[in-house]
Automatic annotation (TrEMBL):
InterPro entries in UniProt: 4Fe4S_Fe-S-bd, NosR_regulator
Keyword Transmembrane: yes
Keywords of the record: Cell membrane, Membrane, Transmembrane, Transmembrane helix
Keyword Heme: no
SUPFAM superfamilies, per the entry: 4Fe-4S ferredoxins (SSF54862)
Gene Ontology CC: plasma membrane
Places the protein is found: Cell membrane
Transmembrane segments: 34-53, 65-90, 111-130, 142-162, 262-282, 312-336, 348-368, 402-423, 435-460
Lineage: Bacteria, Pseudomonadati, Aquificota, Aquificia, Aquificales
Protein name as catalogued: Polyferredoxin
Domain 4Fe-4S ferredoxin-type, chain residue ranges per copy: 63-105, 147-183
Top-level lineage group: Bacteria
């Protein structure tokens, strides 16, 4: 597509990344983007094929690519910093843009046009439920290859059938998750509004494979479903990618708030952050036998005589975390609705965005620690195995080393940041009763901080007597 002729090219904002020679090249240049996408596509296909050819546990490459590289780096580390860069280079999205062009371009039916399919079905049930209940399942190279083969074939089918990148929007396990959590990043895509005033046809919107209009992102304070594919920037030079204060959009009014974003924050805070604290934290402490999910899990395991490869403790921990978080949110926001004289839905849509840091920033603690103890040597040794590099490295640190405790600060940063955002957003809901609204709505981040303090106290007072894998 032709680049729109605009006269301001030499006068880009100082914070516009696309105007910075090196960063602009890395984020916008067609050939660099093609290189990233071909690289991730190659890794996806090679890791899948390698998993089928070498299905035994001696294959460390397949699991390293998906669980030590793609998941922790692109999801947990890049989202709160660079934004939705994984979707920018995602091999499924890359293939999808080409398959959609030759496909049937049907409008997705109403039952499919539902992002909760991806969040609850593909993410929570297909991944987290399996991870907690059958912990060894996805550690298998063969099962990992089958898992990603399924989603690769499913994405190809949906891209061929439907328009608007329907798979990414509604079915992808991380589609709505990435869009929601990219709000905590330093980057923001938008357009130069002065140039848009004289625009007779929105080339940026016409070029977007996701059928979005970047010129509306600022006024709506939302980039939901934007994957930073940069097709809009290639179609019109009035598109900019700004470096903004961390999570700046979370402090402002959102014109068209999405309940799916709020539910991403709430559900994944329960399924990931709280469940990890329960099952991979307190369950490995010296007082694990007193934890309710351990007691109930062991009872169910014994009562039904279940094999060891089924982990009822993990399943019960996830269900208890979901019940706890959803109950706290529901009860506290019912009270917020009464205090603010707004509906429960309105209260959640205004204040729920404050919960964004609880999972994505809190999760950094786990991922960064595991980079030193597990991920680094898994990645290096996996690539050495797959490409015959002949090298072997050890972990950068051993579990339990004192300096690793520095990463325990991240949950407290997450909780305090959540409270700060909540205080700012409380004025948007009920300025005259702001203090009372804040006090009631802070139940979830308050509980999160208390759990973090309790887990830290248990770790110090009752040292771990168990070890566990880093999957």
């Amino acid at each position: 597509m032709q680049v729109a002729k605009v006269h301001f090219i030499a006068k880009r904002d100082k914070r516009d990344i696309l105007g910075m020679p090196l960063l602009g090249f890395l984020f916008k240049n067609r050939y660099m983007l093609l290189f990233y996408r071909l690289l991730t596509l190659f890794l996806l296909l090679y890791a899948i094929i390698y998993g089928f050819v070498n299905p035994t546990k001696e294959n460390v490459f397949t699991t390293a690519v998906f669980w030590s590289l793609f998941w922790p780096f692109f999801m947990v580390i890049s989202l709160p910093t660079l934004g939705n860069v994984f979707c920018m280079v995602c091999p499924h999205g890359f293939l999808g843009k080409h398959l959609t062009r030759i496909g049937l371009k049907l409008r997705p039916p109403k039952w499919l046009a539902n992002p909760y399919i991806g969040l609850i079905g593909s993410n929570i049930l297909a991944y987290w439920f399996v991870l907690y209940t059958f912990p060894s399942f996805l550690r298998s190279p063969l099962n990992t290859a089958l898992f990603f083969t399924f989603f690769t074939l499913l994405s190809a089918l949906l891209f061929l059938l439907f328009r608007g990148m329907a798979y990414c929007k509604y079915v992808c396990p991380i589609g709505s998750v990435n869009s929601a959590f990219s709000r905590t990043s330093f980057t923001w895509l938008s357009t130069y509004q002065e140039e848009c005033k004289t625009c007779k046809k929105p080339d940026c919107a016409l070029a977007c494979p996701y059928e979005l209009n970047p010129s509306k992102f600022d006024s709506r304070n939302s980039m939901f479903n934007c994957t930073l594919c940069m097709e809009c920037a290639h179609a019109c030079d009035a598109v900019k990618l700004e470096a903004k204060p961390w999570g700046s959009s979370l402090y402002k009014e959102i014109k068209q708030p999405k309940m799916i974003e709020v539910m991403v924050y709430i559900l994944l805070t329960a399924v990931i952050t709280f469940t990890m604290r329960f099952h991979h934290g307190l369950s490995r402490s010296g007082i694990s036998d007193f934890m309710p999910w351990v007691v109930v899990g062991k009872y169910l395991q014994s009562m039904f005589n279940l094999p060891k490869w089924i982990d009822m403790t993990g399943l019960v921990a996830m269900l208890m975390a979901l019940l706890l978080v959803l109950s706290v949110v529901y009860l506290s926001f019912k009270m917020v609705a009464v205090v603010s004289k707004r509906s429960l839905k309105d209260s959640l849509l205004v204040l729920g965005y404050a919960f964004a840091p609880l999972m994505i920033v809190g999760g950094l603690s786990h991922v960064l620690e595991f980079f030193f103890t597990e991920y680094y040597h898994n990645i290096m040794n996996g690539f050495s195995q797959a490409f015959g590099l002949g090298i072997h490295v050890e972990a950068l640190a051993k579990r339990g080393e004192a300096w690793l405790h520095i990463f325990k600060v991240f949950p407290f940063i997450a909780g305090l940041w959540s409270l700060q955002i909540l205080w700012r957003r409380s004025a948007l809901l009920a300025e005259q009763r702001r203090v009372l609204v804040f006090a009631v709505a802070s139940s979830l981040p308050g509980l999160y901080l208390m759990l973090s303090i309790f887990a830290l106290w248990v770790m110090v007072s009752f040292p771990s007597v168990h070890t566990h894998g880093a999957h």
